[in-house]
Specification:
The chain is about 40% helix and about 20% strand. The chain has about 290 residues and is of the alpha/beta class. It comes from Cloacibacterium normanense.
């Protein structure tokens, strides 16, 4: 009896040590994880990670920038803890997530972004319709320029227009910044970039990029919409998209801590300063009499 009791105590002690060790390495204010995001969301992801580490100096957030589809694959394989997404998952992907991650799918929405269509600064073109975009993507002229297949901008436009990705006809320039910097070489072309690439009103780099291009308004139902904060907040700009986090972390550790921070007030202020529309807080106006 005494021997059995000692064995029982031994296993309880070992379990307690393991549990404490796991909790210690999984705390939201201590440890390190990898977060993956498409290059289109680099600015807002970096800004949120920087602020989180400033609040919790004992954390390390390693950012991995890769195409959106590859980020999702890495999440399913548990190579990363958190990813940023913009498109909706397919039914097959939802099933894979629930099977491989073994968690209910709960997207954590944190920002309103947009896919933006740009041309050279001296282009006579000022707007483009949704119908024109769809027509161009089926034309052999390949006047639409994306930053890559399997990337967020390409994925979102294909999903929005209900086009099979393999049937889309387009040109390719690597990177959102690459498109902005080279669009002047292609006077008949239209570049597709993320708003987040050029949205920060306080960034000298974003300002320099904005100076090189003309942003087209997008017409839908004979109404032209600019990709500005108001039209994104009201979901009127046709290519408005909501950025959200997915995680494979089944407890409140560093991954979920970062997500919670990003979705609450401090993180939403960071989103706003990046020039994007915060998903969870809105500007409040008070009339004084």
């Amino acid at each position: 009896m005494k021997k059995t009791f000692k064995i029982f105590i031994f296993f309880i002690s070992v379990f307690s040590v393991i549990s404490c060790s796991q909790n210690e390495s999984s705390r939201p204010n201590k440890g390190e994880i990898v977060i993956a995001a498409d290059e289109s969301f680099r600015n807002v992801t970096e800004a949120l990670a920087e602020r989180y580490v400033a609040h919790y100096p004992e954390t390390k957030l390693h950012l991995k920038f890769q195409k959106e589809d590859y980020a999702l694959m890495d999440l399913l394989k548990r190579n990363v803890r958190v990813i940023v997404m913009s498109r909706e998952l397919t039914e097959k992907e939802k099933k894979l997530y629930e099977e491989m991650v073994d968690l209910p799918l709960k997207p954590a929405k944190f920002a309103g972004d947009a896919v933006v269509f740009v041309v050279a600064k001296d282009s006579p073109k000022n707007s483009i319709s949704v119908q024109e975009i769809k027509k161009e993507l089926q034309s052999d002229e390949k006047n639409i320029i994306f930053d890559g297949v399997n990337a967020s901008n390409f994925n979102f436009v294909a999903q929005k227009l209900n086009l099979a990705p393999q049937k889309i006809k387009y040109s390719l320039i690597k990177g959102n910044k690459g498109i902005v910097e080279q669009i002047s070489k292609f006077p008949n072309s239209i570049g597709v970039i993320s708003l987040n690439t050029i949205s920060n009103p306080y960034s000298r780099e974003a300002e320099d990029l904005r100076k090189q291009i003309k942003i087209l308004s997008v017409t839908e139902n004979n109404i032209a919409y600019e990709p500005n904060r108001e039209n994104i907040r009201n979901m009127k700009y046709p290519f408005t998209r909501i950025l959200y986090f997915l995680t494979n972390e089944g407890h409140f550790g560093l991954g979920n801590g970062f997500i919670r921070f990003s979705c609450t007030q401090k993180g939403q202020i960071v989103v706003s300063k990046e020039g994007l529309q915060p998903y969870n807080i809105f500007k409040r106006e008070v009339m004084m009499r």
